[in-house]
Records
---
Amino acid sequence: MRFKKVDLSFQSCNSEYNAADVVIFSAPMDTTTSFRPGTRFAGNAVRVDSIGIEWYSPYRNLSLKDFKTCDIGDLDFGVGNIKLQLSEIFNTTKRILKDNKTPIMIGGEHLASYSTIKAVYEKYPDLRVIHFDAHTDLRESFLGNTYSHATFMRHVNEFLGDHKIYQFGIRSGDKEEFDWAKDHIYQHKYDLETLDSVVEEIKNFPVYITIDLDVLDPAVFPGTGTPEPGGITYKELLKAFDLFEKLTNIVGSDLMELSPYLDASGASNMAAIKALREMILLIQKNKSNK
């Protein structure tokens, strides 16, 4: 498997793969989307519209141009083949990790995160996962699929083990999922309160951060397939990134479930793009502090 720069990259993230510390890729996976599809177009939309943001973040006091970040583009896999898609995402992530680089994935439906987290876990068996989402994603199966965007975190727990997943912003799911969560994971409903204490608890563990952008309120982020009223604001998400700076070993991350054509204004694209900028700079700073 060989990676190279793509013609269209995210903002200034156009370093050569071998020189890069952080590697971005996108997973155009939309196979188990159960309401409104379109997440497979997120990667391209994020790259095209990233020309509209500054390289510099006043929140991190850092600039993208000061770090070596490579964007290898959309993964090339067929639409509809879940097994093939998950395998390609897993192998890509594993290769990035093998080369001692940190992966950041742009989704795509949230099922794709199953493969990235599994690959990261194989390198870091003491992994902890911070999960922002409107939905529990803890079903055993959904609409006939064992592996689905509504089940993936339940399957992550199977290999990760109990009490290593930390959910925030959850406000939708089946009663069985909420009941199951009480005995197996840490789940904070509705908002990001208590995130500070969780970060303090796990700050010295390897941590993967997975963000379903529907954790944001639909008034802020309408461009997603399953919007849920009652979400957090973008400013609250930025405060979470401030807390993430206390983590000593961020080993991977993703931003999922942008469906760009569901928001004609383009505001959802920009929220995703600026969140991605913050994540890149957060991880680059984290790596430079080691």
Note: The two ends are 28 Å apart (CA to CA).
---
Amino acid sequence: MTKSLTSPTQARYGMIEGQIRPNNVQDRRVIDAMASVRREKFVPKPLQGVAYLDEDLKIADGRYMMEPMIFAKMLSAVQIKEDEHVLDIACASGYSSAVFSILAESVVSLEEDEELAKTATKTLAEEGYNNVAVVTGDMTKGLEKQGPFDLIFTGGSTDQISDNILKQLSENGRLICILNENGFGRAVLMTYKNNIRSKKILFDAAVPTLKAFEIKPKFSF
């Protein structure tokens, strides 16, 4: 675990040099974006001193800010272009959306928790990320009317991704998430073309599961 540093600037530097670069993230745009976003502004005040730890941070009941290294590797894998339109599902406090706003042309952030959505909207505006729109709604349905999207991202691990969400991708769009399969979490890159979904496993990753995307156990009597 990386120790918290007193200066946020030093902490961001430590995150880049101690967590992200050593894990084979060399994408300059991703590194610069994560180095510029003030992560401490997107966590509750009691957690600001540990905002850059190499672990998932609990920011609300059942909701976490993803570990920096995992997030950076996912960003690097999708190679976001400057003219792309992004859907950030489960944006929580808005940190991921802030990073996407630097990398892409526009971001729509979908959050089901009204308080988190309000916090994200406020913080993103205060920090100057003006190409992000936060929407409160059912995260499992996506935002068809706001699409199509060049990239869809989910801010936590999921047990399933519906075709309904995949259909919201643009012609060459892709979805990246942490998918739970057989008890293991893996970062996967997904596409959906001609009613056919494809999946590419990128790397193993364990992050907290989003309750909205859990598969409920079936009981038989």
Note: The first strand starts at residue 57 and ends at 60.
---
Amino acid sequence: MMQTIKLESHIGNDGMLHIPLPEIKDADVEVIIVYQQTPKTQKVSLASLYGICADDPIIIDNEGVVDNLEEKLEGMFD
């Protein structure tokens, strides 16, 4: 019976790909490998995001945003 396994793995400096097959023991298998290298994703650190809103400050007014929202939502969920 042909089985298909899809996995994402990291290949280290040794160039070895390890594929665990715990359900198969003491058996011969035929393996076909089709691979595609995944693009490296750039990790963004929290420190790099510091100050990105400096040119667009958040303005808090004293008019009561909650009261204003409640008026607009009145009857909305009846």
Note: The mean pLDDT is 79.
---
Amino acid sequence: MTEFLLLFRREAAANSIQPSPEQMQAMTKQWQDWIGGIAAQNKLVSTGKRMDFEGKVVRPNKTITNGPYVEVKEVLNGMLFIKAVDMDEALEIAKGCPILQVGGNVEVRPLIG
């Protein structure tokens, strides 16, 4: 089995839209069900917590800028570590991610070492 990192992204502009409590509860349930399904298959390595939209970036010249990635339209929303036989299986798992229903995307990266 190979370990993969799933990175969840959404458009930065979408972050200012607050869902209703009912929508938030429904979305939370979808995330719990999706992650629970991965765990039930013994493919969950570690859950990441949802990240705040605030942050800073340390650049190679050791300057610190507001971030993260203020120059792009997407923000990193969270992450999850999973196990899969190969990239194809990891991609199939990622296709079930609830963030896809709200216009977000999932980046899938194999981990080295």
Note: The CA atoms of residues 11 and 74 lie 4 Å apart.
